[in-house]
Backbone:
């Protein structure tokens, strides 16, 4: 585990809070970067997870620690291994550039285009262990967008999580499929191509897309297409930890989140709609932070 590096100045209102870049190693040897904001007498910690195409220094994982009025909460925002869309991994040597089909060699490239949904809990598990090793018995997880999907998945595996904060959570990784492939025939053709590539050992190969993401690996596309429709709801229902769910009133998925909320079989739950806000809560950062602070104070 790499040593933290101090950043200049406090990230929140406390003059004694330090912020440090940290690197955390997962159980399977992947190095995750993150930002740790830690008051001297913190009683609990919050782990922040980014959405697809994002990273630890954008969205709630950045602005909540900056704006929080709580001086007894530690904040850790991490890069999951699927951060951004594509990046060069610093922890894997570029021994094969370009990749040779059929050769079992590590790829120095990772990111959202190569996202493996089944690996998500490994990243969260490493970050939670890191916080618990620092003495935090009460760990909350706050996931934005796709991070909300991973939050639900992990918390169903860890009964000791103190609480869950779901910020405009992704409820299905199938959501983009109808955007990427406007007809059922086009989607079926892409899935068939993905199956052939995976079967031949070329699951890392990219399939072009006409819009957001712009390309996705064959194995990632196949995994998304095979996801159970009720996977997210089962995961959220699999934990008894308190839930705060926040979404923007200006988001197109607002009605579906309201329905999910009504159906959620969790006793300790609260929701908040940020009226007029978009998916990134631009211009509403203080309002979101206040709601998160109130939830943390109560728990």
Residues:
């Amino acid at each position: 585990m790499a040593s933290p590096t101090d950043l200049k100045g406090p990230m929140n209102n406390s003059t004694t809070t330090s912020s440090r870049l940290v690197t955390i190693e997962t159980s399977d040897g992947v190095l995750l970067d993150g930002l740790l904001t830690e008051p001297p007498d913190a009683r609990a910690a919050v782990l922040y997870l980014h959405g697809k195409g994002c990273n630890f220094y954008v969205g709630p994982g950045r602005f909540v620690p900056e704006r929080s009025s709580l001086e007894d909460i530690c904040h850790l925002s991490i890069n999951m291994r699927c951060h951004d869309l594509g990046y060069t991994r610093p922890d894997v040597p570029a021994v094969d550039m370009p990749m040779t089909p059929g050769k079992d060699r590590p790829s120095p490239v990772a990111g959202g285009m190569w996202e493996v949904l089944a690996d998500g809990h490994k990243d969260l598990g490493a970050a939670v262990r890191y916080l618990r090793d620092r003495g935090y018995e009460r760990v909350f997880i706050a996931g934005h967008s796709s991070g909300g999907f991973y939050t639900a998945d992990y918390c169903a595996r860890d009964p000791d999580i103190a609480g869950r904060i779901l910020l405009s959570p992704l409820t299905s990784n199938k959501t983009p499929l109808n955007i990427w492939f406007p007809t059922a025939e086009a989607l079926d053709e892409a899935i068939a191509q993905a199956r052939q590539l995976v079967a031949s050992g070329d699951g890392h190969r990219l399939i072009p897309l006409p819009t957001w993401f712009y390309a996705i690996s064959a194995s990632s596309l196949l995994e998304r297409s095979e996801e159970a429709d009720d996977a997210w709801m089962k995961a959220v229902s699999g934990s008894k930890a308190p839930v705060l769910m926040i979404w923007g009133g200006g988001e197109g998925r607002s009605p579906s989140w309201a329905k999910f909320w009504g159906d959620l079989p969790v006793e300790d739950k609260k929701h908040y709609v940020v009226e007029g806000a978009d998916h990134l809560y631009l211009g509403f950062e203080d309002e979101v932070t206040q709601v998160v602070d109130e939830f943390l104070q109560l728990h």
Observations:
- The chain has a mean pLDDT of 90.
- The longest helix spans residues 184-199.
- The chain has two domains: 5-94+107-173+231-298, 174-226.
